[in-house]
UniProtKB/TrEMBL annotation:
Pfam families: DinB_2
Name under which the protein is recorded: Putative metal-dependent hydrolase AYW79_04810
Chief localization: cytoplasm
A GO term for molecular function: hydrolase activity
Organism of this sequence: Ferroacidibacillus organovorans
Length: 174
């Protein structure tokens, strides 16, 4: 069951992060919209409504979750770049996934939103300097996070959810 929850493993923050590592994460994050679009290519509506694991979200919910999560990430980065260690607002992801827009919005809307968001995010990240990556925000649940660690987290997050979909496709033979 652990592999169904974490098909690429849990996020493990690195003690030392090089500029090359940051560039790799920026590239992974920038490619998330393309990877997601590829992962759901040719899925039927019934397949989109299939949970990726027992008691897990459906593929459709995952597709809508990624732009929600990464919008929050983008705002957190901008807050940390413009304020001194702001305390960010958390949100109830599971409750968001139950709202009507997750069922009633065509997935293309979320795919387009994610692509547009990541264009902006990539522009911001690609121009950030070392000192800016050292800035941080405070998550009331998990503590202080530097932007370079947050970058790694969100690069992992995209790959994590895409692996939920691709693992399901493999298991189901889709």
């Amino acid at each position: 069951m652990e592999n169904l929850h974490y098909p690429i493993g849990k996020f493990i923050p690195l003690d030392k992060i090089s500029s090359d590592q940051r560039k790799e994460w920026i590239a992974q994050l920038a490619d998330t919209p393309n990877q997601l679009r590829f992962a759901i290519k040719d899925l039927t509506s019934a397949q989109l409504d299939t949970p990726y694991r027992p008691d897990g979200w459906s593929v459709r919910q995952v597709v809508h979750h990624l732009p929600d999560s990464h919008m929050n990430a983008y705002v957190r980065f901008k807050l940390a770049l413009t304020e001194d260690q702001p305390t960010i607002k958390t949100y109830e992801e599971d409750r968001w996934s139950q709202l009507v827009d997750y069922q009633g919005t065509p997935i293309e809307v979320s795919l387009t939103l994610l692509a547009s968001l990541h264009q902006r995010f990539d522009t911001l990240l690609s121009e950030m300097q070392d000192a800016e990556f050292a800035r941080s925000y405070k998550n009331p649940e998990s503590g202080v996070l530097t932007l370079e660690t947050a970058l790694g987290l969100y690069a992992w997050h995209g790959r994590h959810h895409i692996a939920h979909i691709t693992s399901l496709r493999n298991r189901m033979g889709w």
